Amino acid sequence: MTQLTLASILTQPVGVSHYLIVGAVLFVCGALCMATKRNALGVLMGIELVLNGANLNFIAFGSPYLRKASETMGLDGQLMSLFVIVLAAAEAAVALAIALNFYNSFNTIDVDRADQLQG
Amino acid sequence: MEDPIYWPSFFFLLFSAIACAFAVAVVVTPNVVRMAFYLVLSLAATAGLFFLAGADFVGAMQIMIYVGGTLVLLIFGVMLTSQDRFISMKTSNFELGMATGVGVCLFILLAVAARSIPEWHGLTAQQVAEIPLEPTAAPLGMGLLGARVDSPDRSGYLLIFEIISVHLLVVLVGAAYLARARRSRSGFSLTSDG
């Protein structure tokens, strides 16, 4: 674990695991955002963070600079992350439309108030 | 013996610090407008990480679609729903404490898993210097059209490309239909009665 020290990171190239750790930070922050925010738009921002962390992992596994080129996903990683970006845009548009409808109907954006469907 | 600083790693540290710090700030701040701003900075720093990993086209797309498109949508949503009582909504301290505990445990699990495989610890500087630099836009475009120029034994993505194209079209038409301005028969808008 000595390779995690700052000096050795600064003097040699980073690897996949460094990218995975950054992706893990983004993922955890997004998951916490989804779990704790009461504003529906805050939940949406958490989803964006989670998707971005996953994207970072795809890019890291596809990059030839981070581990041996014979083992990487090649362009698959970048293509996957392009698909994720496009689907995230679609998801944000629909979720925003739903949030606006909810706001117009109930005059609130608090997700705790969206309890009409409870059994 | 003092090794010289390896500058790509320095920029990796810089961008990852910005991305992580603002991602944490998104979770911590209760103000939804500030959350949107911090999210812009975090996603832009992630685009920098994409460039550092050699994914130039995806990094540019990240800035154009995510930072330029998706977040503008989100910021419009914030502006359209910004009454004073919704700008800053607090979560209870108990929930925040629980979430922090779960989050820290999850992060430790993921970080240990990421560090546990020796092949993922990175190449040497000399190995990296031998890799030829090539732009990825043309191979990505060929891959989306069904032909792989980088590794001929892998398949292309023409079908998925078509599916997400139609999906995006349908979803955006549906979103525009859902979010259209409604007017009641008598001419008053639904939102004016507050």
Q: What would you say this structure looks like, in words?
A:
The complex is a heterodimer of chains A (119) and B (194). Chain A has helices at 6-11, 16-36, 40-62, 75-106. With 119 residues, chain A is mostly helical. Chain A has one domain (14-108): Helix Hairpins, CATH 1.10.287.3510. In chain A, helix 2 packs antiparallel against helix 3 (40-62) and helix 3 runs antiparallel to helix 4 (75-106). The N and C termini of chain A lie far apart (51 Å). The mean pLDDT of chain A is 86. Chain B has 194 residues and is mostly helical.
Secondary structure blueprint with pairings:
The complex is a heterodimer of chains A (119) and B (194).
Chain A: H1 6-11, H2 16-36, H3 40-62, H4 75-106
Helix pairs in contact in A: 2-3, 3-4
Chain B: H1 7-28, H2 32-52, H3 56-80, H4 84-87, H5 93-115, H6 125-130, H7 137-144, H8 158-178
What is the beta-strand fraction of chain A? under 5%
- Give the strand tally of chain B: 0
> pLDDT under 50 segments of chain A (min length 5)?
none
The helix/strand class of chain B is: mainly alpha
* Mean pLDDT value of chain A: 86
Shape of chain A: elongated
Largest interface in this structure:
A-B, 86 and 95 residues
Short description:
Chain A is mainly alpha-helical and 119 residues long.
Annotation keywords:
heterodimer; A: 119 residues; mainly alpha; Helix Hairpins; 4 helices; elongated; B: 194 residues; 67% helix; globular
